[in-house]
Amino acid sequence: MPDLDFTTNTHLHFLEAYINFYMTTPTFDVKTTLQRLLIVFTDKIATPASCLQFFNADWCPLTQEISFSHDIETIWVLQRTLTVTGIKDVQVSQFIENLGTQVATKGFDNNKIICDHSNTLQTSPRKTWWTLAEAIIGFYNLYQLTNSKVYYELATHHFEMVERNFVDTRSNSEWYAYLINDGHQILQKISPTLGKAPYHTCRMYTETIARLSR
Fold it and tell me: Phi/psi class of residue 47: alpha, beta or left (left: φ > 0; alpha: ψ in -120 to 50)?
């Protein structure tokens, strides 16, 4: 993509890294950095309906594509930042709730499974391992925030879908990387590929266990 300088994904993982840094080194400087990153999200990345994904050096968006994958991940990482640091930011909290509503109303296929992304109203039929992993954490996080049974059921629905379709039961295997879905049924499982890592899957399990234990 031409003139690409900033991405939502980079800032999201910067945020996550600094959250963990703050948990081990809770200094004023680290907290200030986290506050600056939150401002980037609210002032540059966030829109009322989604997070824009790609930007040039002037922070002008380079595409209007909606990435439901990154939106659901953003929800819980932003909330983790507020929880860990104790930062009170009404704008961030409101954005988290709005983003959850948008994903829960516009981000699904006919099976009520989250779509990877949408561009000019066309959604991808592919289901990706990391999107499903983030959906489980994201919807459960929204349930913890709102106590809404809708979000609890969405988290459970996605977890059960993963157990049925994504877990590769062959010896020494873990999850399939992708599934191709026609909107009604799973058509094809695609085995793990180069570039797939256990990061999102392992994080989903550890996050879920920690949240359930609390």
Answer: beta
